Amino acid sequence: MNKRLQAIESLVEPGDGLIDVGTDHGYLPVSLARNGYPGALFASDIRKGPLAAARRSAREAGQEERIEFQLCDGLALCDPARVDTIVIAGMGGDTICGILDRAEWCMDGRYRLILQPMTRGEVLRYWLTNNGFSIEREQLVSDGGEIYSLLCARFGGQQTLLDAELYTGVFSLIEQDPLWPAYSALLRGRLEKLLRGLRQGGRDPGRLRLMETIAEQLREREAYGKRTGDL
Ligand SMILES: C[S@@+](CC[C@H](N)C(=O)[O-])C[C@H]1O[C@@H](n2cnc3c(N)ncnc32)[C@H](O)[C@@H]1O
């Protein structure tokens, strides 16, 4: 397993049942089975090829009996009574939102979500916090020259995020991560490039204002972090 999947596995707590949605090669559930995860294990994928690859991985690891495979869209075949952990990783944030949106039953505090958006993390954080979920944990992992963002969420509570936090992750959770300085510098660089383009183009004043607000919030938080770090 690569470092990104290992980091996802490290966020799994022992439980009664876990589904890995969009499992592809099935590396995560196979590793969990090998490492003694105590509950039931499910792996779903919308495409036949990846699900067949997942079965093959499980067979080769001697774990085929341990995992139930589901060929379906997202959580469509998942029995809500048999899981307490839902992992959706390696997809766009908007795809993850769609999967959760089509499974209303997961809007219940009994389920812990472990999510890893490849893109559009801001769409996912917006969807979660506007649909009654709270983000409980944010983590960064560096793998193959990229920094990936992982988060855990659960239904319940009321969390209001700054616009910048939709992009970066919840400040109070992510600032503790050793990769935060590198990640925030990376995001700031991307933001500055985007701002230059928007200022030159002059065609989207609304987006320009939003991006300026985000850049300002990020600057303020970094200054706050430096001040509190100095104390
Ligand atoms: C890039 S792979 C990620 C594999 C693994 N989860 C990881 O993080 O390495 C994305 C997988 O999600 C599957 N997928 C995409 N949309 C899906 C959906 N709506 N429901 C189930 N699987 C989906 C794809 O077929 C593909 O196998």
Proportion of helical residues: 40-55%
- Strand content range: 15-25%
For the largest beta-sheet, the strand count, sense and barrel status come to: 7 strands, mixed
pLDDT under 50 segments (min length 5)?
Answer: none
Protein traits:
single chain; 231 residues; alpha/beta; Rossmann fold; 2 domains; 7-stranded mixed beta sheet; binds S-adenosylmethionine
Can you describe this structure?
It is built from nine helices and seven strands. By secondary structure, it is of the alpha/beta class. It folds into two domains: 157 residues, 3-Layer(aba) Sandwich (Rossmann fold); 71 residues. The chain has a seven-stranded mixed beta sheet with strand order 3-2-1-4-5-7-6, sandwiched between helices. α1 packs across α2. The radius of gyration is 19 Å and the shape is elongated. Bound molecules: S-adenosylmethionine. The site of S-adenosylmethionine has 17 residues, from β2, β4 and α4. S-adenosylmethionine (SAM) binds next to β2, β4 and α4.
